[in-house]
Amino acid sequence: MDAVSLTKKLVEFNTINPPGNEAPMADFVGDLLSTNGFTVHYPGFGENRKHLVAEKGVPDSGKPLVFSGHFDVVPLGARKWSKDPFVCKVEGDRLYGRGSSDMKSGLAAIICAATDVSAEKMSEEGIRLILTAGEELGCEGARKLVKTYTGLGSASAVIIGEPTANLPATGHKGAIFLTAVSTGKTVHSSMPELGINAIYKAARAILKTEGFMFNARKDNLLGFPTINVGKVTGGLNLNSVPDHAEFTIDMRTTAEVDHKEILIRLGKELGDEISLQKHVDLPPVSNKDDDPFIQMVYKICESEGVTSARSRSLPYLTDGSVLQDYYHNVPTIILGPGQPDQAHQTDEYCLISKIEQAVNIYKKIIINWRN
User: Fold this and answer.
1) Nearest to residue 254, comparing CAs of 221, 229, 206?
2) 3-state SS, residue 298
3) What's the CA gap between 166 and 335, in Å, rounded?
4) 120: Cβ–Cβ under 8 A, 6 or more apart, which residues?
5) What DSSP letter does each residue of 186-235 carry, written as one string?
6) For residue 334, what are the β-bridge partners?
7) pLDDT class for 310, splitting at 50, 70, 90?
8) Rounded (10°) angle between helices 259-270 and 198-210
9) Which CATH architecture has domain 3-172+284-368?
10) Best label site of 22, 51, 125, 207, fewest CB within 10 Å?
11) Using CA atoms, how far apart are residues 51 and 61, in angstroms rounded to an integer?
12) Distances (CA, A) of 140 to 45, 119, 248, 256, 321
């Protein structure tokens, strides 16, 4: 199966997260890989949910090249689609469907490149595919996988097939996702002096969050860290003093930010009126631009007609945060055929030409790395 046909087939699997339901897609991909000589494992992730870890030519204590991607996609959104999101429609160079860019075209390109290259052409370290369930909600699947599955071994380098239009990205910001909670005492709103208003506490804390200073230098690749309050909830009705309120905090960090230190400072800034609940704590992806693997990927992309294939960063989070940290900071590149501006969009599409280009790039990387 060629990568375009495989993309169409993968889009047909409804893996909207939540709930995910990635298991049927993992089984389908696993059958393809095992037929092509890969050893396949399916670490569980919950009801009807599976990861897939597949290897070929990896010796004991080997450090293979790792490719990674995710099975799940985001919900369809409120806007009506003009096309069936789970039946691919092709118009010119565009292939439409939910997940076509983010990131089932990337998965298809990885799978086809990996199965097309014979074991004899790979490096003696082999190749490993880590395909995860549950990426879209803060890389939850990968975070659990590295904690519970013992078969991930070591790695020499990692490629994340997320949408970049085949422009290699050598970094993206890390993330800290928090819920800030305030509590109070409820009474009738005609006697507010007898109660404690949790929303007022939250409002004061929100203003402090807006003015929070990271005191971090500008990162040469990732720029400055950011902070955002994205959701606020509180209270039960109009005529009661609210005894509970909460809001979310989304921090995007750089290599210049110490996560432990910044959480301590934020807690002190918000004070005793607020308790912080941490949901996601992932480091940024960052590489040395002169690393041999990075330079090799640049040259291969340029040989395949990708212009400006040099150091750049991405605004979004990927499983690369989890895997680069797990594999002790090996070079990690985000590189995939999807269109970045199509991720999570209504009538999402990917360019067929980019899928075919990605397969060629991936194959050259597999053949040339450490050969």
Assistant:
1) 221
2) helix
3) 5
4) none
5) --BTT-GGGSB-HHHHHHHHHHHHHT-----PPBTTTB--EEEEEEEEE-
6) 160, 169
7) confident
8) 130
9) 3-Layer(aba) Sandwich (3.40)
10) 207
11) 22
12) 10, 32, 17, 24, 12
Distance from C-alpha of 134 to C-alpha of 21, rounded to nearest angstrom: 9
Listed by start position, the domains of the chain span 3-172+284-368, 174-282
User: Does the pLDDT of residue 315 top 90, yes or no?
Assistant: no
Omega into 25 within 30° of 0, i.e. cis?
Answer: no
Residue 313 has a pLDDT of 92
Are 43 and 112 in contact by the 8 Å Cβ rule? The answer is no
The set of residues, in sequence order, having a beta carbon less than 8 Å from that of 291 and lying 6+ positions away, is 331
Q: Which residues contact 72 (CB under 8 A, 6 or more apart)?
A: 15, 16, 17, 20, 22, 133, 134, 135, 136, 141
**E strand or H helix at 327:** none
ω into residue 19 within 30 of 0, thus cis?
A: yes
pTM for the model: 0.94
Topology alike, domains 3-172+284-368 and 174-282: no
Tokens standing for residue 95: 């292939």
Q: Phi, psi (5° rounding) for residue 338? A: -65, 160
Looking at the DSSP bridge assignments, the partners of residue 219 are 223
Q: What topology does CATH give the domain 174-282?
A: Alpha-Beta Plaits (3.30.70)
Q: Which two tokens stand for residue 257?
A: 């930010």
Its sign, for the CA torsion 299, 304, 310, 313, is negative
Six-digit token pair at 232? Answer: 């606020």
Residues 231, 192: Cα–Cα separation, whole Å: 25
At which residue do the structure tokens 């005492």 appear? 185
Q: With the CA atoms of 75, 79, 83 and 85 taken in that order, what torsion angle do they form, in degrees rounded to the nearest 10?
A: 0
Residues 6+ apart with CB under 8 A from 340: 101, 163, 164, 165, 314, 316
